[in-house]
Write a structure and sequence with these properties.
With about 140 residues, the chain is mainly α. The protein has helices at about 1-15, 25-35, 40-50, 60-70, 75-85, 95-105, 110-120, 130-140. About 70% of the residues lie in helices and about 0% in strands. It starts with a helix and ends with a helix. The protein is elongated.
Length: about 140
């Protein structure tokens, strides 16, 4: 896993040397690799660096970072990036919401998980088995 994210990051950083400009898709792809490699800090760092590089994050980028944080039980960071997506005027989807709810479940934050589920309903975002099971799991762990 460490080799894969290092290769992906190296490719992203090497793009300017061959006169290619990294874009949202490039950053999102590397963020997804970081998510799969449990490199949540690197994924968050990439997200933070995008505006300085003149690149606008999209919902895929934010979702990858939220999911990366969820996988390593960093529920506070997951929520920070989840709400950062909303503050950036990007609409979360079922996957990003479920990742945020799962992060709350893993962090034993049942009240946050319930709030996110209610927010999904208010925003008319489809709820699925994953989102409901994560809320149920969070309440059972208290």
């Amino acid at each position: 896993d460490h080799v894969i994210w290092q290769l992906a990051l190296s490719a992203l950083m090497g793009m300017p040397r061959i006169e290619l400009v990294p874009d949202t898709v490039s950053y999102s792809a590397v963020s997804s690799v970081c998510e799969k490699s449990n490199c949540w800090l690197l994924a968050g760092g990439l997200l933070t660096s995008m505006p300085r590089a003149g690149v606008t994050p999209n919902s895929v980028t934010f979702s990858a970072v939220v999911s990366a944080c969820e996988k390593v039980k960093e529920w506070q960071q997951a929520l920070l990036h989840f709400f950062g997506m909303i503050m950036s005027r990007l609409l979360p989807d079922t996957i990003s919401c479920s990742s945020a709810i799962s992060a709350c479940e893993k962090g034993l934050q049942w009240h946050q998980a319930c709030r996110l589920l209610a927010m999904m309903q208010a925003m008319r975002i489809a709820r699925d088995e994953i989102s409901y099971n994560a809320v149920i799991g969070a309440t059972l762990k208290t």
